[in-house]
Amino acid sequence: EVQLMESGGGSVQAGGSLRLSCTVSGFTFDGSDIGWYRQAPGKEREGVAALGIDGSTDYADSVKGRFTIYKDNEKNTVYLQMDGLNPEDSAMYYCVADYPPGAQSRLVRAEGWGYWGQGTQVTVSS
């Protein structure tokens, strides 16, 4: 059984930082693309960041320069370091895995990802 378990969410003031973690089990971690999506109430889900098997990265324009995705293969864990948070970043953040290798639009085609975590809430106050 594949499980993606997110942690690290919480409440911070604008300008603060958080690091989200996602530990993967029941899946070949190092043989899969992995990433993060988010969804705020009343809004469509948005691709935030993706990390390819080859080390390639994609970032949404809204977070580029502020967020960093990276992984620790020994721990089967992917991280999202979020700096310079603002209220517009408030959302439920989901870890995703298993996008077709080499396929395009990893931050657009949410339906392309095979596995989703339960989510961790991030709230940023002004």
**First and last CA, distance:** 40 Å
Radius of gyration, CA atoms, in whole angstroms: 13 Å
Residue windows where pLDDT falls under 50 for at least 5 positions: none
Work out the strand percent.
over 45%
**Number of extended strands:** 11
What is the N-to-C order of secondary-structure elements (H for helix, E for strand)? EEEEEEEEEEE
Structural class: mainly beta
Q: Helix coverage percent of residues?
A: under 10%
Q: What is the average of the pLDDT values?
A: 95
Biggest pleated sheet: 7 strands, mixed
Describe the global form. Answer: globular
User: Count the helices. How many?
Assistant: 0
Walk me through what this model shows:
The chain is mainly β and 126 residues long. 0% of the residues lie in helices and 47% in strands. It contains no helices and 11 strands. The protein has strands at 3-7, 10-13, 18-25, 34-39, 46-51, 57-59, 67-72, 77-82, 91-97, 115-116, 120-125.
Could you write a compact summary of the structure shown?
The protein is mainly beta. It has strands spanning 3-7, 10-13, 18-25, 34-39, 46-51, 57-59, 67-72, 77-82, 91-97, 115-116, 120-125. Strands 2, 4, 5, 6, 9, 10 and 11 form a seven-stranded mixed sheet that branches.
SSE topology:
Elements: E1 3-7, E2 10-13, E3 18-25, E4 34-39, E5 46-51, E6 57-59, E7 67-72, E8 77-82, E9 91-97, E10 115-116, E11 120-125
Parallel strand pairs: 2-11
Antiparallel strand pairs: 1-3, 3-8, 4-5, 4-9, 5-6, 7-8, 9-10, 9-11
